[in-house]
Amino acid sequence: MDPRKSSGLFERPWSLVVLYDNFGLELYDQITAVEDYYPFATELAILRAKSREIACRLGGISTASTSNLNETLLVDANGREEINQTGSDAGLRLVKPLAAVPEDSSSSPAKATGFSLTIIELGAGSLKKTSHLLDNVARLLRNRDREGGARTGPYMSQAEYYALDLEMEQLRSTLSAIQLPEDSGVGPTVGKQVQGHGICGTYTQGLDWIYKSLTTTSQAVSVELGKAGCRKAILWLGSSIGNFSPAEAVKFLREDLSRALDNDTRVLIGIDNCQIPEKVQLAYNDRQSVTKKFILNAITVVARRLGVPEAVLSLEDFDYVSRYNEGMSRNEAYLRARRDISFEVTSVEGIGTAVENDLIQIKADELILVERSYKFSPDDAYRLFDQAGLRVIQKWSDSPDPVAPTHTLYLIERAAFHFFRTAPWPSMGDLPLSPADRPVIHKEASSNWQLLVQIWDTMSNHSLPIRMSDGHQHKSPNISFYSEGKNSSIGSADLSSATSGGVPSMSDWITLWKAWDTVTIEMIPRNMLHKKPIDLRHACFFYLGHIPVFADIHLSRYFNVATTEPQRFAEIFERGIDPHLDDPSKCNDHSPFPDQENEWPSFEEVIAFRDKLRTRLTELYEELGKEFIGSKILLTRKLGRVLSMIYEHEAMHLETLLYMLQQTDFFNPPPGFTPPDWDSLAREWDCTVIAQSEAFGLIEYSTPQTITVGHDDLEEEDSSKPFSEAHEYGWDNESPSRQVEVKPFKLEAAPITNREYLEFILQGLSNFEPIDDHAIPESWIYVFNPSEQESKKHQVQIKTFYGRIPFVVAKHWPVQASGSQLERFAKWKGGRLPTADELRVYLSDNPISQSVQSPIGFLNWHPLPPQRPRKGVDGRWRGGWNGGVWEWTSTIFEPHPNFKSSLLYPGYSKDFFDGEHNVLLGGSWATIPRIAHRQSFVNWYQFKYPYVFAGGRVAYDY
């Protein structure tokens, strides 16, 4: 629903309930039909085109059995329909799924289980848009009987719809529409399948009811709706979030909306992304002046509700003023008084101040801010969700170009854990336009219209008790909204204070522990912990003990105390193995470890040790001071380094463990994250790639580039310099900073994709010749079937944590392969892998931290198609990200000038200065933001190492 229609549901400076008497509702319906008003028509077009996909995803089920994989129906803002073909891959010989290998890692088909879906819409309105979703929910319900025993996965068995709105009359109309004839837009196909209910109240009241009655985290879950197998979906359409400032939107999402979410709840939010000032201005000041009438009607409503005669307060006394504030990306609607106005207001209770026969005065030419409508760019939207601790599952836009959509529907959830990617959004005031931009002088010296606003809000709030249209009661149990469980709501105090290299906060540790436990405890079956995922590393069980032991050793050294019992743990778990690929007998120094499984400590012993370490760290943080008298423990620069080191050490091992696990078939999918819907995502990615397939050409750096490499973080200065919150910690190879000049070169705009790499390795093969083993990435599963027809001889699937998926789904992802494999591709293209400094030149214009959409930090559990940079007016290419992989370079990992080994961890870098390891830069989907955002960070692997989440791009000499 449009923000102007719904913002009255919130306690605003001027409650927009004033806009929605019966005549206001009629005017709003007229606005939705105005050609200039794009928000309603654009969102409606998306819902018409994608409601089948969205209906499936609201319930968390696959679209595979409900969609045509080769066609996407698009409806533009004017209602015209057209079919876009997206499935053809001319010239590519392999797009078929692998028949010989199952598409997931389970050994038997999933048992069919039915679930109920409860849909709650905030600000339901007339169902003009929602009807398309409800219709497709009804279709899914009708299919349940047709499929019968053929089902092999979850299916929707029943559905309920709760419409939340302020006006009881509007609710009755909405609910009755479900039972009306087919031409109503909803019709009996919905009414027979979806049971409708109404909730009359504000958003805050409605979300409070959802929390207390529907969420599994509440102790007051109703017996009917809280039963097992119930999934929930909250709809918040029409860019209603645009009536909030960014800081307010984050607060609402994090505190109000988030507490209504549990593991089985998803939210569909519509957001206006338009960044074209002229288009926005016209939408809110249309050529037919319908919006003008709509805003001015508020004066009539206020006068009527306060009992002020029309002769005293009339819409004729005000002008409508609409301005687009480009600096804040919002449209602002004002009422400007034509004359001095004064009137008395009778006694009003509950506003926190005595109001009895108070005189309200409004000065001539005074501007009263009635409405603001923020326009959030795609990056802005992701930033809102990130700071609210929410994850985007999927999105649907009016344009396949990810940079410039007009409107997007975002499906979001509160996942099992969340790494924050952005700094908190600064609060912005809601003052009117600056003096230079105001169309009139804003006289407010003797005005007290804000008191009128306060009075009106009180009257509105007191007149809107929550009411249910059926038998459900609104209960108020005496419990806390913020539980200690892993999916508890995220309060503002939990926002990480760490930058790309400061001391990690306690909240950072808790998030990392949740991620670590998700992988080690929930994704790895207990009976598989002693299995080696790959030959070149320990069994998983070693890392379960290594992480707390490493931290305990370094904390004990700092405080000069004995390591935690049992002492044996420090002997066998201190350091792991990293053998030479070609000669495994050559290996780094490592801890002696048992040969037999029964010689290792028990699982329970290791978990107990882990918990001791976590308790030790928690108590340490509780006692930390910042080097002032009276602190139990002083936070020195050296202690900050120890804490940063053990934090990043655990994060790096989390990623290492994941790339090892992906080579196995014994892991469980990530719990607490909605699985991807590969079919609909593949269609979206195809359209996005086509939209970006213009002649981008190569990125050319035609003149020498001077860059700063590394940062200044000398460990030897820890004892002489005080602790500073602004200090950025790093590893020994990151310091000191130095200036480097890079010769002219050219670079591909995106990494090598799976599709491009397949074309390369198929070159020159006869019909009866398989692909050489050395050319096949370890991220693939390959089967050669010489007896099959040509298009099926070479069959490939891609390994993911949701099982093996068809090549056609992941063809646009960056290929994950060894440095040597990618080097051969680069030479075939007539180029080479870039040097580390060449890649740094590109990353200086396209830092991972520039876009919160960049797929790092478990935004997804898989790569994405890369987003190509675009050439700006200054000739620099910006706005690109690589799809969520590290990038190989041709640079050997070796000591740079003035390198000094770490005093705390001497072998961190120098043990690998062997000429066999190459530098990798950036970060993958499994790299925490703290590491991926720090441009001085350096990763390295043996050039032939095939398992890491890493790709590469091609560079050319200039």
Can you give a write-up of this model?
This protein is α+β, with helices and mostly antiparallel strands and 958 residues long. It folds into 4 domains: 37-275 and 376-432, Vaccinia Virus protein VP39 (Rossmann fold), CATH 3.40.50.150; 279-374 and 434-462, no CATH class; 496-661, Four Helix Bundle (Hemerythrin (Met), subunit A) (Up-down Bundle), CATH 1.20.120; 678-750 and 813-957, paralog of FGE (formylglycine-generating enzyme). It is built from 25 helices and 31 strands. The strands form 10 sheets. The protein has an 8-stranded mixed β-sheet, with helices on both faces. A hairpin with a 5-residue loop joins strand 1 and strand 2 (81-85). Helix 2 packs antiparallel against helix 10 (290-306), helix 3 packs parallel to helix 4 (130-147) and helix 13 (506-523) runs parallel beside helix 17 (637-661). The longest helix is centred in the C-terminal third of the chain and has 25 residues, at 637-661. It is globular and about 95 Å long. The model is unreliable at 1-13, 67-110, 181-185, 218-228, 349-354, 430-446 and 462-498 (pLDDT under 50).
